[in-house]
Amino acid sequence: MRYVSTRGQSPSVGFVDAILAGLAPDGGLYVPEEWPTFSHEEIAAFAGKPYAEVATAVLGRFTGDEIPAEILADMCAEAYASFTHAAVTPLVQIAPGGFLAELHHGPSLAFKDVAMQLLARLSDHVLGLQKRTQTILCATSGDTGGAAVEAFRGRANTRIVAMFPDGRISEVQRRFMTTAAESNVRCVAVAGTFDDCQTILKQALSDQSLKQSVGLSAVNSINFARIVAQSVYYFTTAVALGAPHREVSFAVPSGNFGDGFAGYVAKRMGLPIARIVIATNSNDILARAFEEGRYVRGAVAATQSPAMDIQSASNFERLYYECVRRDGVETARAFKAFNETGVIDIPPQALTLMRETFTGVAVGEGDTTRTIVATLNETGELIDPHTAVAVAAFRRLRDHTAPVVILSTAHAAKFPEAVHAATGETPAMPRKAQSLAGKPERYDRLPADAEVIKAYVRAFAEA
């Protein structure tokens, strides 16, 4: 299995090199040279299988012969043993035809754990074989950083620097990063937005001198291994609801579009997905792109669903590349123009292909709050604001022809202030979150300046 850049100017690489690099040398994102597929019979056989077994099968189609099957199986078993629910991503029905996929039973109480726990083991295994180390620079809008720190803390072959926008994430989200005491972890509060953090990350990854000197890599959803790992719960939840014998739809709260693109990956592999509803908050660049055909960056608005406060969704480049028939020159032109002007006019044929799978829905703050309240009153379930955005989209665009899986991406306890403000109830804190309250925090405050951050990363790695 080989991987190519969406911008077409980098040589193809294997799975290991793709996940260790994160970003391709030409600034593009890695995608498979050809999409692997499952037959309907193979998908049907996932029914009733342990989650780790399905993950091994899905990942195995992308690792090829670079990671032996038995080692990959051990990694998956170990990664998902860290979850507090035996099903890993269980389903809970909240409406006729509507099911929550609870993706928050991992160590940091967010869906990012599903991929990050596996990615940490993949990376550590490969680095150990190659007798080398790496430095991970992570940009987070809230949950990626906590999941990454939880997965990589104490790892022998990896150092991690987690950047987050100062004052724009919840206290629980911040503490999942900043209370880590291991010497291989550093946290940075950046004086800016998540988009600033993401821009700094891309600039750092494009600095070949820095990349080579400190072994720089990324674990954001620009890393293709994250996307593949997240595609697994599309298979397990859909099969539980009758796939592949009937189609299933999904409602996905989306910021950086990694989770949404993971659904596209599952569909390309043969899972019969009727529709993927991309639910955004008022930072609605993706919803507008699918509805209007223009991908236009706006100012980032602070909301009660901060992990989605994004106006530049990195993984949209992967979908654009696929829908312009894998034209790397066109993709490079479009995203260079976007960096300069903040606008891409999606070609009509590409937009038609996108709309075959995706629908965009923007949900305002009032609707988010009302949905948290209504879901509690109607089902007894306390949901976090990100999940509420997807539930609101489900209610607005209910698809009666297929059951809808609504991705519940974080535990309500990660956003107690927002949930309490909406309902008057404070979500019960899982033991993991309770333990963070009394621990000292450790982080540095730095400006939203790529050169300052790069110097910080270099000094940390060299020390």
How would you portray this structure in words?
This protein has a domain at 91-109 and 224-423: Rossmann fold, CATH 3.40.50.1100. Helices cover 46% and strands 16% of the residues. Helix 6 packs parallel to helix 7, helix 16 crosses helix 17 and helix 16 (365-379) packs across helix 18. The strands form 4 sheets. A 6-stranded mixed beta sheet has the order 4-5-15-10-11-14, with helices on both faces. The radius of gyration is 20 Å and the shape is globular. A hairpin with a 7-residue loop joins strand 1 (2-5) and strand 2 (13-14). The chain has 463 residues and is of the alpha/beta class.
Shape summary: globular
What's the Cα radius of gyration?
20 Å
In whole angstroms, the N-to-C terminal distance is 37 Å
Which CATH top level class of the domain at 91-109 and 224-423 fits?
Alpha Beta
**Order of adjacent strands in the largest pleated sheet:** 4-5-15-10-11-14
Largest sheet entry? 6 strands, mixed
The overall pLDDT average reads 94
- The structure class reads alpha/beta
Helix fraction bin: 40-55%
Outline the fold blueprint:
Blueprint: E1 2-5, E2 13-14, H1 15-21, E3 30-32, H2 40-44, H3 51-63, H4 69-80, E4 91-95, E5 98-102, H5 112-130, E6 134-139, H6 143-152, E7 158-165, H7 171-178, E8 185-191, H8 194-205, H9 208-214, E9 216-217, H10 224-240, E10 248-253, H11 258-268, E11 273-280, H12 285-292, E12 294-296, H13 316-323, H14 328-341, E13 343-345, H15 348-355, E14 358-362, H16 365-379, H17 385-396, E15 404-408, H18 416-423, H19 431-434, E16 444-447, H20 450-462
Parallel strand pairs: 5-15, 6-7, 6-9, 7-8, 8-16, 10-11, 10-15, 11-14
Antiparallel strand pairs: 1-2, 1-3, 4-5, 12-13
Helix pairs in contact: 3-4, 3-10, 4-5, 5-6, 5-10, 6-7, 8-20, 10-11, 13-15, 16-17, 16-18
